[in-house]
Design a protein that fits this description.
CATH class of the domain at 519-732 and 742-766: Alpha Beta
Shape: globular
CATH topology of the domain at 519-732 and 742-766: Aspartate Aminotransferase, domain 2
Number of strands: 26
GO molecular function, one term: glycine binding
EC number: 1.4.4.2
Pfam family, one: GcvP2_C
Domain Glycine dehydrogenase C-terminal: 776-897
Structural class: alpha/beta
Number of helices: 31
CATH architecture of the domain at 519-732 and 742-766: 3-Layer(aba) Sandwich
CATH superfamily of the domain at 519-732 and 742-766: Type I PLP-dependent aspartate aminotransferase-like (Major domain)
Strand content: 5-15%
Bound molecules: pyridoxal-5'-phosphate
Organism: Pollutimonas nitritireducens
Helix content: 25-40%
Strand order of the largest sheet: 2-8-7-6-5-3-4
Largest sheet: 7 strands, mixed
Distance between the termini: 75 Å
């Protein structure tokens, strides 16, 4: 065949770790003839798919990229003045190349293991410090998904923190329209009435108030008095705000706001058709223990040195389940890192200069438009002008389109323009020429134009307090400084570019370079989410193709790519179920059955969707206890809305009873929600939409190669069977409003969520093709079974399915070891750092265990390196068990060992320094040295510090340094 001459299957062996010969060795270790036989042993016949996926064959990298380039070319990237929460920005090149395009940053995992995450934790602490500083509040998190969902989270936080008994949440009519839509969607399940109005007309009785500062259409109000009034009535006040504007404006914390939220997009993160961008939230100290999302805090390590780690909310959903403050798990870490570094790069002087340029150019534009006879409404503004364009409106829009310029169309007689840091004087002249043409006049760009004396920020609202005063924002002057700072931070961390990350349930697989290339193409990066749809045809093609492929893979009929995390997908899926029941007149169906082993986001999402959670027990094999399920179904009767089940289970097995379980739920009138986070075990082998489930979310940041970015971005599409399709998340129009007739509102601010990273899963599917995707799944199962087979002599494998096999991950039971000698799963996790590994998932879904998921991307050598480390550690445990090592003072309890710990004159341990640092001789080549010793989590939670250490500590340090 002629096709054979093309390198079309080259990518498959690049993505899949073990070569054919290695696969054969591994199969012989586990005692199976071939991959096909292994699959027959593992996957229940009742769900096994017959026939190949109907997807095109694999393509070469060059071929697939060329085709995607052609698709991206169908996007028409206009000059955008739309604003509405999304602004042009220059991504500093040093950040683009060294963070966004650098696998050391983008392939890292969420920093749950702080000892190997100090670099990204410091970057996130910078982000939090920046947000605290600019908003004038006490504490900030890192981070939320976007501005709309941040507003929705603030609504929840306000409710938890308010003294008022009211069910009403007041949102200003001046908020971005898409924010209001997301709020309305969220309010549905929380029994909150969102009242949208003009605060100038007075506030209703309410528990919370959301104000936009500056307004979506540009105005800036002084909210001091209003805030006092709201507080007097027990309401919590939230400001939706803009970090660049706050460089010049009195910050919300100074005028009394309790919470500030917004998007950090314009701090060096591309528009990307709406995402991914980091949302932010800051609040007063009084609210901190209720704040949603992840919070980085300062603590100390076992040697008494400062160390960073996630505070309070670490795995909050796992601990508090349906009582969790929110379902936020994957956030937007990489984008938060970029935004924080944007502040480090520009520093206080640079940032203020950017804000002032924008403000003065806007003032110049307003004055010049006045000369053309176009009035601006309101005299207070930062970067946005609302223009009274009257009868000239459509002519101006036409002239703008002809000049490849997008304006914000507000009504038939008014337009708005927003400026950003990328706008030059020449751009403003081009804009004025467009307006002049629209009103039948001309604009002389070469004329002697004067800059107005003032910009549009009223004197009473001009910020007097300094910005970015923390030394971290002044440490970088030159690009050399910045380059080394970023490199230094990255070097502190372990990411996939150095080692396998065997995290169960997280699917840390290869994020191939080719898959990452298009996300920085301007055709994708510079597209505004509210640009006319005629301009985003390339995105439409990409979204349509990816949607079709994901439907084929999952067996569902429809899909929404809008949710920007798995948990957001869960929420969307449950809203679909709720919408369906309500449309069928079954309003009472509000109970969600959730197995005890479920991921914590499941119950948290169910609660957000207004459902009551009833827990179903697991049997001794880790499967859903079918007898208990039947009892619970009988007990909740016609209140049954849904069962949420993860498949293969979080215990890492394909439960045989899955089809029976689905049938039981359907017979009782319920819907089946199958959590698709473990889809990496099923692609090409089984389709949940065909074997009994009604709806699933996928984690494209697991199975479909979007990198974890240190804890985000993510995409969590929600896929449904046809009867649920009408209840998928609504898509806001170009004005940011939900079209009438939509059954369900949007779950994210941007119409297609984190659209700019969709090229990654699209390319993965294209490069692998039907045959490659199937092989990836088979090898993921092979790798997990190989590890289980080799480690079972040393650590009991907690659960196994048919024929004693696991699915794509396995749980090592450490509890017997803990009982025998006190060595815990945590000790092993930390000791693995000394061996150069990131730990497996700790204590999920079963406390005291380690869950290992190797993925198909790890080759035999790396699997063996990990297995050797685990076996060597078992030997170290044996020594403790036999009393040969001290029960407290041993290599495990003291792990990880920093270089500093070993470089002491007197060594007081009964093991050697070599045993601590080089337990395997292979470690002598390329040893990873953790920057801190074991971190004390409890200390950090008791002494919560969540921004960079106070300036005084630097002064003290400087004083202590001999000159
Ligand atoms: C089984 C399961 N469900 C849901 C989620 C939530 O996904 P996300 O972190 O994208 O919100 C996860 C994430 O780890 C998971 O493992």
């Amino acid at each position: 065949m002629l096709r054979e001459l093309d390198p079309h299957t080259d990518f498959i062996p690049r993505h899949i770790g073990p070569a054919a010969a290695d696969q054969a060795k591994m199969l012989s270790v586990i005692g199976v003839a071939d991959l096909h036989s292994l699959v027959q042993e593992v996957v229940p016949p009742s769900i096994l798919k017959r026939g190949a996926l109907k997807l095109p064959a694999s393509r070469s990298e060059a071929d697939a990229l060329a085709e995607l380039k052609e698709i991206s070319g169908r996007n028409q990237v206009f000059r955008n003045y739309i604003g509405q929460g999304y602004y042009g920005t220059h991504v500093p090149n040093v950040i683009l190349r060294n963070i966004l395009e650098n696998p050391a940053w983008y392939t890292a995992y969420t920093p749950y293991q702080p000892e190997i995450s100090q670099g990204r934790l410091e970057a996130l602490l910078n982000y939090q410090t920046m947000v605290v500083d600019l908003t004038g509040l006490d504490i900030a998190n890192a981070s939320l998904l976007d501005e709309g969902t941040a507003a929705a989270e603030a609504m929840g936080l306000a409710r938890r923190g308010s003294r008022s008994k009211s069910k009403v949440f007041f949102a200003s009519v001046h908020c971005h329209p898409q924010t209001l839509e997301v709020l309305r969607t969220r309010a549905v399940g929380l029994d909150i009435d969102v009242v949208v109005g003009d605060e100038a007309q007075g506030l209703p009785d309410c528990f919370g108030v959301l104000l936009q500062y500056p307004h979506s259409l540009g105005g800036i109000a002084d909210y001091r008095v209003l805030t006092e009034t709201a507080h007097a009535h027990g309401a919590v006040v939230t400001a939706a705000t803009d970090l660049l504007a706050l460089a010049l404006l009195v910050p919300p914390g100074e005028w009394g706001a309790d919470i500030a939220i917004g998007s950090a997009q314009r701090f060096g993160v591309p528009l990307g058709f709406g995402g991914p961008h980091a949302g932010f939230m800051a609040c007063k100290d009084a609210f901190k223990r209720n704040m949603p999302g992840r919070l980085v805090g300062v603590s100390k390590d076992s040697q008494g040195g400062p160390a960073l780690r996630l505070a309070l909310q670490t795995r909050e959903q796992h601990i508090r389940r349906e009582k969790a403050t929110s379902n936020i798990c994957t956030a937007q870490v990489l984008l938060a890192v970029m935004a924080g570094m944007y502040a480090v790069w520009h520093g206080p002087v640079g940032l203020k200069r950017i804000a002032e340029r924008v403000a003065y150019l806007t003032a110049f534009l307003g004055k010049s438009l006045g000369e053309l006879g176009i009035g601006t409404s309101g005299s207070a503004y930062f970067d946005t002008l609302l223009l009274d364009t009257g009868a000239h409106t459509s002519a101006i829009v036409q002239a703008a389109q002809a000049a490849c310029i997008n304006l914000r169309q507000v009504s038939a007689t008014s337009l708005a323009v927003s400026l950003d840091e990328t706008v030059t004087v020449a751009d403003v002249h081009a804009l004025l020429q467009v307006f002049a043409a629209g009103v039948g006049k001309s604009w002389d760009a070469a004329g002697q134009h004067q800059l107005p004396a003032d910009h549009g920020i009223p004197a009473a609202l001009l910020r007097a307090s300094p910005i970015l005063s923390h030394p971290v924002f002044s440490r970088v002057r030159s690009e050399t400084d910045m380059l080394r700072y970023l490199r230094g931070l990255a070097d502190k961390d372990l990411a996939l570019d150095r080692t396998m990350i065997p995290l169960g349930s997280c699917t840390m697989k290869l994020n191939a370079t080719a898959e990452m290339i298009p996300i920085t193409w301007p055709e994708f990066g510079a597209m505004h989410p509210f640009a006319p749809t005629s301009q985003s045809q390339g995105y439409k093609e990409l979204i349509d193709r990816l949607s079709a492929a994901l439907c084929e893979i999952t067996g569902y009929d429809s899909i929404s790519l809008q949710p920007n995390s798995g948990a957001q997908g869960e929420f969307a899926g449950l809203l679909a179920i709720r919408g369906y029941h309500q449309a069928s007149g079954q309003h009472q169906r509000n109970v969600c059955l959730i197995p005890a082993s479920a991921h914590g986001t499941n119950p948290a999402s169910a609660q957000m969707a207004g459902m009551d959670v009833v827990v179903v027990a697991s049997d001794e094999n880790g499967n859903v206890d079918v007898a208990d399920l039947k009892a619970k179904i009988a007990k909740v009767g016609d209140r049954l809305a849904a069962l949420m089940i993860t498949y293969p289970s979080t215990h890492g097995v394909f439960e045989l009873a899955i089809t029976e379980i689905c049938a039981l739920v359907h017979e009782a009138g319920g819907q089946v929600y199958l959590d698709g986070a473990n889809m990496n075990a099923m692609v090409g082998l089984a389709q949940p939409g065909k074997f009994g489930s009604d709806v699933s979310h996928l984690n494209l940041h697991k199975t479909f190669c979007i990198p974890h970015g240190g804890g985000g971005p993510g995409v969590g599409p929600v896929a449904v069977r046809s009867h649920l399709a009408p209840y998928l998340p609504g898509i806001v129009n170009e004005a940011g409003q939900l079209p009438s007739g939509a059954a369900v509102g949007p779950v994210s601010a941007a119409p297609f969520g984190s659209a700019s990273i969709l090229p990654i899963p699209y390319l993965y599917i294209t490069l692998m093709g039907s045959e490659g995707l199937l092989e990836a799944t088979e090898v993921a199962i092979l790798n997990a079974n190989y590890i289980a087979a080799r480690l079972q002599k040393h650590y009991p494998i907690l659960y196994a399915g048919r024929n004693g096999r696991v699915a794509h991950e396995c749980i090592l039971d450490i509890r017997p070891i803990k009982d025998s000698c006190g060595i815990s799963a945590e000790d092993i996790a930390k000791r693995l750092v000394d061996y150069g590994f990131h730990a497996p998932t700790m204590s999920f879904p079963v406390a005291g265990t380690l869950m290992v998921e190797p993925t198909e991307s790890e080759g035999l050598a790396e699997l063996d390196r990990f297995i050797d480390a685990m076996i060597a550690i078992r030997g170290e445990i044996d020594a403790v068990e036999k009393g040969l090592s001290d029960a407290q003072d041993n290599v495990l309890k003291n792990a990880p060992h920093t270089a500093q710990m070993l470089m002491v004159t007197e060594w007081h341990h009964d093991y050697t320094r070599e045993q601590a640092a080089y337990p395997l001789s292979s470690l002598r080549d390329g040893k990873y040295w953790p920057p801190v010793a074991r971190v004390d989590n409890a200390y950090g939670d008791r002494n919560l510090i969540c921004s960079c250490p106070p300036i005084e500590s630097y002064i003290e340090d400087a004083a202590a340094t001999p000159v």
